[in-house]
Amino acid sequence: MTFRRPTGGAVDRDTVLRFTFNGQELTGHPGDTLASALLAHGVHEIGGSVKLGRPRGIVAAGSEDPTSLVQVETPFPEPMLLATTVELFDGLVARGLAGQGKLAAEPDPARYDAKHVHCDVLVVGAGPAGLAAALTAARSGARVVLVDEQNQAGGAVLGVDDPSTARWVAEVVAELENTSDVLVLQRTTAFGLYQDGFVLALQKRTDHLGFAAPASRARQRVWRIRTKRTVLATGAHERPVVFPDNDRPGVMLASAARTFLHRYGVLPGSRAVVFATNDSAYLAALDLAQSGVDVPLLLDARPEPPAGLAAECAARGIEVRVGQVTGTEGDRRVTAARVGDELVPCDTLLVSGGWNPVVSLFSQARGTLRYDGGLGAFVPGEELPTVRVAGAATGEFDLAACVRQGQESVGSANEVAVPASDAWRTEEPGLVLWRVPGDDNASFVDLQRDATVTDVLRATGAGLRSLEHIKRYTTIGTAHDQGKTSGMIAAGIVAEALGVDLADQRPTTFRPPYTPVSFAALAGRDRGELHDPVRVTPIHPWHVAHGALFEDVGQWKRPWYYPKPGEDRHAAVLRECRAAREGVALMDGSTLGKIDVQGSDAGKFLDLLYTNMMSTLKVGRIRYGVMCGVDGMVIDDGTVIRIGEERWLVTTTTGNAAKVLDWMEEWLQTEWPHLDVHCTSVTDHWATIPLVGPRSRDVLAAVAPELDVSAAAFEFMTWRDTTIAGVPARVCRISFSGELAYEINVTAWHGLAVWEALIAAGEPYGITPYGTETMHVLRAEKGYPIIGQETDATVTPQDLGMSWVVSKKKPDFIGKRSFARPENLRPDRKQLVGLLPVDPEVLLPEGSQIVGTRELPPPPVPMLGHVTSSYPSAALGRTFALALVRSGRDRVGDTLYVPVGDDLVPVTVTESVLYDREGARRDG
Amino acid sequence: MQLIPCPWCGPREEAEFRYGGQAHVAYPEDPSALSDEEWARYVFFRENPSGPFAERWSHSAGCRRWFNAVRDTRTHELLAVYRAGEPAPEVTA
Amino acid sequence: MTSPPGAHLPEHPDFLWDDREPASSYDVVVVGGGGHGLATAYYLAKVHGITNVAVLEKGWLAGGNMARNTTIIRSNYLWDESSGIYEHSLKLWEGLEDDLGYPILFDQRGVLNLAHSLQDVRDSVRRVNANRLNGIDAEWVDPAGVKEICPIVNVSPDVRYPVLGATYQPRAGIAKHDYVAWGYARAAHAMGVHLIQNCEVTGLEVEHGRIAAVRTSRGRIVAGKVALCAAGHSSVLAKMAGIRLPLASHPLQALVSELLEPVHPTVVMSNAVHVYVSQAHKGELVMGAGIDSYNGYGQRGSFHIIEQQMSAALELFPVFARAHLLRTWAGIVDVSPDASPIVGLTPVGGLYLNCGWGTGGFKATPGVGDCFAHTIAHDEPHPYNAPFTLERFTTGALVDEHGAAAVAH
Predict the structure, then answer these.
(1) Quick check: pTM over 0.90?
(2) Is residue C1, in this structure, part of any structural domain at all?
(3) Does C239 lie in the same domain as C308?
(4) Helix, strand or coil for residue C368?
(5) What ipTM, to 2 d.p.?
(6) How many folded domains does chain B comprise?
(7) Surface of A (462-521) touching C: CB under 8 A
(8) Which end of chain A, N or C, is less packed with Cβ atoms under 10 Å?
(9) How many structural domains does chain C have?
(10) Signal sequence: where (chain C) (predicted)?
(11) Are strands A188-194 and A198-204 parallel, antiparallel or unpaired?
């Protein structure tokens, strides 16, 4: 049997869409939701309840529905959607859920994106009030954005049979669409309202297209709207009444039945009993009766039913009786309404307990809410400066008044005419009724969470008074619907139970999002390659072509090592190290941070920044420096070269380049604005190539014919400008390996060419590219620390054995005062030392802890420090490590122990410099 | 996401800015003259009021200038912005 | 037929506590009725027999960070001082359900702390080794091991920041925050502690260097001792007694999805990619976001932080793509300069401080409750909180957990 009427509603009956629900093949039409299509087949039961396993149906017609949860399986699985908001498409496969969905195992192939828009007026909701606001604003020349959750404008108009108002809606929409600077977004839900007019809205762009959705189009889009004024015309949700066994499928809100009838041409059943506390349910009863539904009885909880509407009902054969539904009968669908001792057979029970204005976004905007005792609902309290509320969201239900509010919300006198309508006519005020007494165990307040009146009364009986506590105790309002239909009733029942006035109660907080938003939509395009930028050097293609493996250092990809066929990491690194110590090798050091520091006070500034003296450095020379935080802990190191009287180039570690620039600018701007200093990041301007090893001089000489490379003419810690492979270059004689070495800097544009020229010139000497791992080994053999590896924000220069880099002469520099704190004067601080495993083959894992005893006592075991770096060394012919060890320098020569797995590895403490202590190799 | 009115660039999205904590905490004239307590106060102790708070921001993804703002930490509303070196304006939250 | 997914959750007891009117004086007034305050009152009564105690809460009990955190419990901290108090806490967690007689849903499902760079790996191994020597269960697992423990983590080397391994603490886990708070509240109430809600402290009276009374929105209360357990509001309260704290109060946001079939058997945290996530008992994904940069008492953060969190989460967990964000919220975390708490005595006699827990307060609840109660009862710190003095910022003896806990909690 079909419940689809032959005419009426915005569905295209000429086109048939096939879909499968709970394994059953069914049909519907374009314009249907999954819910309306199911109801057209008489299917009310959607899924089960989360705790008790009771059948759950369709209560509302929109996104406020508490029960019609489905898992959509095609074209891609998506959990926990409402049948009332899934637009039907051909080939849809879905199944009902028991309150819990299932994530797809495979990755989501869809695209998501975000778009920014700025406007004068944002209107949320395209019902009569919202349309009036948007049109008024548009006519005044304002930039307007109108967002609306439905697939078409109209709001409540979509749920009634009112051709003249519908025509008005169409005319307003047409005018809006023809007005410049007006953006109308349907299928777009404003879900978050933040400060300074920042509103987030989710647009569903292709879901309704199903398999026909173009893969190139973003499936969902987050609109980031920045608006001067927001008009919330978000309407109202009908509220049920709680009574025993109110959860059976077939029990539905009266307005939902009316919407299914008028918007989709679907009848909710054959025989409907109506339970009303207000006039609106009469209109549903009349419409359904007119459409052929047998409506034997309308129960009105009010002592005096409205005379006019009651008379209309009588004329339609609907008995209007004062009374209440006290229960239902049925197995998986309601078969009768219980009214006292009487059972009234029916397959549908329509309920209306009044209306709750949708105040979620207003509350998110920190608007205060006020309890309206006549409505039995919270309504917006004091106005907010830039957020206005209009229409049913204020508790106003008269069409003309809603339209007037819409106009007034944008502060314009433009008259928007709306035809008179009797689709929402009222005679008498409603009655606030939360529940009908009866079996509290079967009286459901939150149908999704299976929370009953009993649960609420248990909570108050347990001593709870705050609605927040009661919500948590009962879980009411915590499901996907966030209590849209249940929250107010719960508050009402609590107030009754405690004998308090709802006006004195604080409602539970509304929080974003208004309706659920997929994680993927929020992630947008910031995934995969676009999750975080990848930075590469100009020489990167060469590294890729030559089989380098890469290490992530900050956002940079740095060559880690270059394995030859059959080599593992150790073999490759030993080969690379050997080349650097015995022949010549080169690496790509372009990622090093480089900051150009200029100005007449640059020297003074660097003296404040570095622990050692920089201002005395002569032009042409280079000095190593260390920076500390105000707490005296090392934050970065690098070379400082003096390019001119008022110009310096500072290098930083790769990972800290941006931080050091920030650090410099912060001090300059906030503490020492009187200093004439300017800092510019030039990291990306330069390609930097350390050329290392005893044969590096030969290679350099071959590519830099104008440069006198002799040790006498080109001293250690000096720099020269010259030409390399025909390209202007700056060459620094510095070494991070202890070997004779040159750091070649050329503009980034020429980096690859110069690199290739060096490779070619070095060929006779077996020049070998090396990566960060070899760089780490070479410097560790010399006891040079790596910031972030040997340091961890608790290490001072003195701890690193670098007192020589801390000026005694300078009156002050950043961090100096902290060196004198008691903790920094302790003799038992952890200090950087070398460790030699007694067995030279044993490689200590980096991060190993160090203990002083041959046997481990029971925990907690006193620890003396940890291994910061550990490598096999080609130069030493053995393994070695660097470590931070308590009183380390006093322990040189001692044997300590390193727990490795279940073993204790004996190690000998040494000085941190293990290779070429005399520094004999740096001149080649 | 708030709009922060950079005194040099005008209102910009919060994501363009870096936060710098309490404003008007001067680096001591002579740190070596301070006791450990006084030095610790400079290094670690900042006001943390619930209400108007004079604080530093840097327009790090814009003009890269540091400036000061008075912001109500209860509502996060910016009550005033002013350039570095200017005195904190009187504001009422 | 399988039973419904929500059928097995335990019910709350029929009785929790009665609201009290404040009395005119108490031996101990605990300011702040969150997890720490309630636990402190509980241990004061249970361990030390001090029951003339009031817990003052300006809103509803456990409605601050206790109601807003992501309930991760672990003790795998780097430094001895931290591992001491957190491991003490974890041991108490392991017996807490019996101790309180309340089903707190403590579930030791383990926590993975992911490493994404070679330095992360070194730091992780260092922490694992320190943990083991401190008697804390910890292991280093490689990417295949990560996959085995949590099959939905994307351990492909092709992602922007590949997972290079993780530390794993099997005894770590989660609990249900409300249940924990209410368990403490109920038990404390049963021993005579007064739980006073909607009672905001407006002043602290100090006489001759000693705390004398607490002024509140519901009148003046004479107090023998006052214990501050007010998390984000600690600076404001301490200032009432003339004490400055090195704290900054920041918004910290978290979020939850709808109920989903179990996919995530453990807890996963990543500092580098800014994710921490678990799947709670009913099936919702619970996630924490990064801290908002600015000071704020507004219990709200900026949405771009949530968006960043989502993109990071999908990098690690591609299967989350079509999970839905159901609810976001924010707490106020009090962050100290070394990311470690401040627990102990103050310059004012009889006034005790427990603050600076930043993002890590929930897991410490039983441990700090026990140690803080000891501190109050004996007027001297318990050995586990002795390192966490206010004076350490003067001497420099910090317990710098930035590396271990800067972002994650």
Answers:
(1) yes
(2) no
(3) no
(4) helix
(5) 0.97
(6) 1
(7) 462-466, 468-469, 472-473, 479-480, 482, 509, 511-513, 516-520
(8) N
(9) 2
(10) none
(11) antiparallel
